[in-house]
Design brief:
Largest sheet: 5 strands, parallel
Helix content: 40-55%
Structural class: alpha/beta
Strand content: 25-35%
Order of helices and strands: EHEHEEEHEHEH
Distance between the termini: 15 Å
Number of helices: 5
Mean pLDDT: 91
Low-confidence stretches: none
Shape: globular
Strand order of the largest sheet: 2-1-3-6-7
Number of strands: 7
Length: 128
Amino acid sequence: MKEIRILVVDDHLPFLRSVAAWLATLPGVSHVACAASCHQALSLLDRSVPDLVLTDFHLRGTNGFELTRYVKSKADAACIVIMTLFGSPEFHAKAIRIGADHYIDKKHLFYELPRFLAQRFDIGQPSA
């Protein structure tokens, strides 16, 4: 089975920890790193490129669009999923336009992300 590495970026620590713990239980996820800021995420990304960056849009000092632009400017760019609680169809369209591979409303994260992982990486769906 293919295994992927994920970086989760969110400045709300309880949510960050919850998502990271959940992701670590999914089949095919070999490593989950956490960053509580864009600065911390950039430091981690300079050391190692994950397969997926799951980032909140609203981050202190910057936003998920800026992080997406940075990640996608690299030759070995990771897949980017932007998540938010305050989305709209226009927001979704802009996320995709600036290079995000997917956009998820946080209210649907635990349902939609496994489907995206299964589609994109052929992982994430629990065995029957």
